[in-house]
Specification:
Strand content: 15-25%
Family: Belongs to the peptidase M24A family. Methionine aminopeptidase eukaryotic type 2 subfamily.
Order of helices and strands: HEEEHHHEEEEEHHEEEEEEEEHHHEEEE
Distance between the termini: 69 Å
Number of helices: 9
Protein name: Methionine aminopeptidase 2
Structural class: alpha+beta
Function: Cotranslationally removes the N-terminal methionine from nascent proteins. The N-terminal methionine is often cleaved when the second residue in the primary sequence is small and uncharged (Met-Ala-, Cys, Gly, Pro, Ser, Thr, or Val).
Radius of gyration: 29 Å
InterPro entries: Creatinase/aminopeptidase-like, Met_Aminopeptidase_Type2, Pept_M24, Pept_M24_MAP, Pept_M24A_MAP2, WH-like_DNA-bd_sf, WH_DNA-bd_sf
Shape: globular
Number of strands: 20
EC number: 3.4.11.18
Length: about 425
């Protein structure tokens, strides 16, 4: 075993202090075992090759878990609370509460953020490729294939949160194409695209509107501005009725000129944003879009879909057309089912969707066939609820923008915010 030379020896100090030339890529770990002649041996440590970050494909199909391997997903836009809640941003107590939630894998933040990143990537591709001449079915399947791949669809663990809504013109919501749908997007159409992602039942709900020529640009601008107003006014202790009043004021400050005629933009008064709960897209609190006296407040830890709808029509929707949105009721009664096919269908719904919304194409994909009678029986027994398409008056145009916000203890996080809206 060699010995280390005494550094008090003058000749040895000179030898050790001499500059040693090495390649820039070599790391000298230590100088050791200097022999009596004064030469020094150097032990070199090879650098480990850096791991390359996986790049997302186009169209997006690489699971996010392959990219964010540590399980930490990008935050959304952070907005401070207003007025009496500004103190929360710097509160040590609230920061501690937030850390405890963030570190619990069963809690909300990372699940919703993963959904937010899936939504951003999928819609980025969709917005780039949706164009006149495409069928609604093609658009829906492209979006859904992206969501399923990125979130790694796995029954009730992760997947699509509700049917992809592709709502044209005076149809404001709840239309999803069926397997044989041949509807094609036209140049003059106004298309609302509404889709959601869930991770462990935490639902990310976000929507946008596209048009392909400028006639209704102001309509889209009004609705986007109204949604941003709702987000700005939302927060812990904010009253739902007052948020609605601010949304309405912003929306109805716009007008649209079509063929020389001016139309005021009207808020669709019987649609609303909503509280989101685990595996439940519509919670028990709503953010109406017109001023009202609802005194209830938003609370810490809640998360909401802030969505607004504007119209050049009457500003009120009615149900119509064939239903494509269904969901098992959260409080579904336990009743005896006389149809064997209804029992089988309910088992499929429980296994694949639980209380999340679904459409006929999703039942087809789950292996169900000839299920119409069984589905109608579940509806008649109060187990499954229908959500038919919603229309303003024919000839009018409607638009929608929507974001999911998370009311964290310290700040408000707009989880679905992206560069596009």
């Amino acid at each position: 075993m060699g010995s280390v030379a005494d550094p008090t020896d003058e000749s040895m100090r000179e030898q050790i202090s001499q500059e040693i030339d090495v390649d820039d890529n070599d790391d000298i770990e230590e100088v050791n075992n200097a022999d009596p002649s004064g030469s020094a041996k150097k032990k070199k440590k090879k650098k480990k090759p850096k791991k390359k970050r996986v790049e997302q494909s186009d169209p997006p199909r690489i699971p996010l878990s392959k990219i964010y391997t540590d399980g930490n997903y990008p935050e959304g836009e952070i907005q401070p609370y207003k007025d009496d809640n500004v103190w929360r941003t710097t509160s040590e107590e609230k920061r501690y509460t937030e850390r405890m939630v963030d570190q619990n894998p069963e809690e909300t933040y990372q699940s919703i953020r993963k959904g937010g990143e899936v939504h951003r990537l999928v819609r980025q591709h969709a917005r780039k490729h949706i164009r006149p001449g495409m069928s609604l079915k093609e658009i829906a399947e492209n979006i859904e294939d992206g969501v399923r791949a990125l979130v790694e669809e796995n029954g009730l663990e992760a997947g699509i949160a509700f049917p992809t809504g592709l709502n044209l013109n005076h149809c404001a919501a709840h239309y999803s194409p069926k397997s044989l749908d041949t509807t094609v997007v036209s140049q003059g159409d106004v298309l609302k695209v509404d889709f959601g992602v869930h991770v462990k039942g935490r639902i990310l709900d976000s929507a946008f509107t596209m048009n392909f020529e400028p006639t209704y640009d102001k309509l889209l601008e009004a609705v986007k501005a109204a949604t941003d107003t709702g987000i700005r006014e939302a927060g812990i202790d904010a009253r739902l009725g007052e948020i609605a009043g601010a949304i309405q004021e912003t929306m109805e400050s716009y007008e649209v000129e079509v063929n020389g005629k001016v139309y005021p933009v009207k808020t669709i008064e019987n649609l609303s944003g909503h509280l989101i709960k685990p595996y439940q897209i519509h919670g028990d609190k709503s953010i109406l879009l017109v001023k009202n006296d609802d005194p209830r407040k938003m609370e810490e830890g809640e998360y909401y879909a802030v969505e607004t709808f504007g119209s050049t029509g009457r500003g009120r929707i009615v149900e119509g057309g064939e239903c494509s949105h269904f969901a098992k009721k959260v409080d579904a009664p336990k009743v005896p089912l006389r149809l064997t096919t209804a029992k089988s269908l309910l088992n499929t719904i429980n296994k694949n969707f639980g209380t999340l919304a679904f459409t006929q194409r999703y039942l087809d994909r789950a292996g169900e066939s000839k299920y119409i009678l069984a589905l109608n029986h579940l509806i008649s027994q109060g187990i499954v609820e229908e959500y038919p398409p919603l229309f303003d008056q024919r000839g009018s145009m409607t638009a929608q923008f929507e974001h999911t916000i998370l009311l964290r203890p310290t700040v408000k996080e707009v989880v679905s915010r992206g560069d596009d809206y």
